[in-house]
Design goal:
One of its GO terms (molecular function) is transferase activity. It is found in: Cell membrane. By secondary structure, this protein is an all-alpha fold. Helices cover about 70% and strands about 0% of the residues. It has a two-stranded antiparallel sheet. The chain is globular and about 55 Å long.
């Protein structure tokens, strides 16, 4: 655990320093777009924070190559090279879009290319699907297609909520912290000889990258991560979730081994990644359906995302961001607690997780639909026009 903590601190420190450097250089050389009608900020703000986050992540991988505790993740270096190469492609295209607004078709093509590199060259794929009676192995072609589709969906889901200061960085920090705890425990429970694994390492590095970037991105933001940062986070989060599927052991689905909650245990590797990214996925799905029904491209920007609706309801920018944080924490921690309970085979502890989720969801619903201004008896302010994040 100390080595993972070192990876978090190292990535956070490097990302913070690099973010400050990118911010200063962007201001000096005016590397920022002009103010658009849909933007919240009143002064031009650099959008190249994704570069700093990417360099922090790369530095963490480089250091891990010289750390004997992480030698297991370098057993197949092609996986690491594929991950870093795919991430590099996404960051380059994202930076180009942040500066010059690329056509959505180009960006989508780059996303499929990056996902294909991870699935095909990195051999990080969804090979199996857990069933209540065991594990179903997928045909190779279907495995690649499902993996590419999953990565592209998560990338766009994360990118779609990038509309408020500190929103994506904070949500991804919480989501990856919860997923790190789960992946660490899952590998331990699977009886692996080492607790060090690729899924946990990626999650830890992303926690560090988000923590290091958040100080400059918190409202009022000095630096935005842009498409480069948001797409990178989505890519690596999806890759981390896919990497954990390779540690499934069919014996874990035996109720005598796993515990009473066999069905929950079987589907936890799928449920938890979905839970921690539930809000981005809901926003992405509703946006695609909404735009297709209107006869538009599913990637055409609009002002009807979840965070836009919350501002229209009367929430301030910071209130909306904190509510997103709460929803992410409630969804992820509820399933994490239930997973821990299944391993302990303690029914009472299982219901603690259920009760936490029910109470947390109820509280979040009250806060979400009762903006602070209304609770205080103040009239709603005119809704602000937050920054829109196209694909």
């Amino acid at each position: 655990m100390k080595q993972y903590l070192f990876a978090v601190i190292l990535t956070a420190a490097l990302t913070l320093c690099l973010s400050w450097a990118v911010w200063r250089l962007s201001l000096r050389y005016k590397l920022y777009p002009g103010i658009r009608e849909r933007d919240v900020h009143k002064t031009p703000t650099p959008r190249l924070g994704g570069i700093a986050m990417f360099l922090g992540v790369v530095a963490a991988f480089v250091v891990s190559a010289h750390n004997p505790f992480f030698s297991i993740i370098w057993t197949d270096p092609n996986q690491i090279y594929a991950i870093l190469g795919a991430t590099g492609i996404i960051v380059i295209v994202g930076v180009a879009d942040d500066l010059w607004d690329l056509d959505w078709f180009i960006k989508l093509g780059a996303q499929f290319l990056a996902a294909g590199i991870i699935a095909w060259f990195g051999q990080l794929q969804i090979y199996t699907i857990p069933m209540s009676g065991g594990i179903t192995y997928l045909p190779s072609g279907l495995s690649v297609l499902l993996t590419v589709f999953a990565i592209v969906v998560v990338m766009n889901a994360v990118n779609f909520i990038d509309g408020l200061d500190g929103l994506v960085a904070g949500v991804c920090l919480i989501a990856n912290a919860i997923f790190f705890a789960y992946s660490y425990l899952f590998v331990r429970d699977a009886g692996a000889s080492s607790y060090f694994n690729l899924a946990s390492f990626i999650a830890a590095v992303l926690v560090g990258a988000c923590a290091g970037f958040l100080p400059l991105n918190w409202s009022p933001a000095k630096l935005f991560m842009g498409d480069a940062g948001a797409l990178m986070l989505g890519l690596l989060m999806a890759t981390s979730a896919i990497a954990i599927t390779g540690t499934w052991d069919p014996s874990m689905l035996d109720p005598n081994v796993f515990g009473r909650s066999q069905l929950l245990g079987a589907f936890m590797p799928i449920l938890l990644p979905i839970a921690v990214a539930i809000l981005p996925l809901i926003d992405f799905g509703s946006a695609v359906i909404r735009r297709l029904r209107a006869g538009k491209s599913p990637f055409s920007p609009d002002r009807k995302h979840l965070h836009h609706r919350m501002l229209d309801m009367g929430h301030s920018d910071r209130d909306a961001v904190l509510i997103f944080y709460a929803w992410t924490a409630i969804a992820g921690l509820s399933l994490l607690l239930m997973y821990i309970a299944t391993r302990q085979d303690w029914w009472g502890q299982y219901w603690i997780g259920v009760a936490y989720g029910v109470v947390g969801i109820a509280a979040c619903l009250v806060v979400t639909f009762t903006p602070a201004r209304r609770r205080a008896g103040q009239p709603d302010a005119e809704p602000r026009r937050p920054e829109e994040s196209p694909v």
